[in-house]
Design goal:
This protein is mostly helical and 226 residues long. The chain has one domain: Vanadium-containing Chloroperoxidase, domain 1 (Up-down Bundle), CATH 1.20.144. 75% of the residues lie in helices and 0% in strands. It is flat, with a radius of gyration of 19 Å. The relative contact order is 0.16. It comes from Rostratula benghalensis.
Length: 226
Amino acid sequence: MDSLHAAGIRLAEVLQAGPPWLEKFWISVTSLADPKCVFTVCFPLAYFLNRKVGVSVLWVGLLSEWLNVVLKWFLFGERPFWWVHESGLARKQLVMLRQFPVSCETGPGDPSGHCMITGAALWPLVTALTTLASRHSKSLVVKLSPFGAYILLLLAVGLSRIFVLAHFPHQVVGGILTGAALGWGLQGHTPATRSLGFFVATGLALLLSSLALHSLVIATGIDIDW
């Protein structure tokens, strides 16, 4: 794993050595793609355009948020900002890295929540836009443009997370693949006809189950808060 981590540090160095204007771009991307935006921006917009799509974005976002927390507890995953010092790499060789206000994230880092939750929650919206585009155009480019934008967005989010030293490349890739798989798998099982109370109850159940799981794992002697 050390070799994989070291390669990730090298990629972060390359990204940070880029043109100065890219710094603002990467930081803006990592801020705008915060998982909270799924619930405060993406869900309201999708719901306004189409109720079923909006509910699907909310449902997939809710479940992927919970699963990301659970996966991080079991996969652990170092954070580049901390690993470069804890591993001793910074003492062995010159490491040309800068930190940013969003660099100092604590807690396990695998998989990337930004990539996983955003990738999962946006899947229903992207498929809906693809269907809409197919109805109004026979051009393959137009039909595939929503998915093209989806891929480019996740790529930008992933690179931004590496740039700010929040994640290693393999954590970003894992987040993107897991998010896309979740979006694809959960979209067809959206409880679109359920009431608001159902979603509140589900959210509460997920919260309580995560707290119970946290306590159970701690009780077995595994320090998931390392």
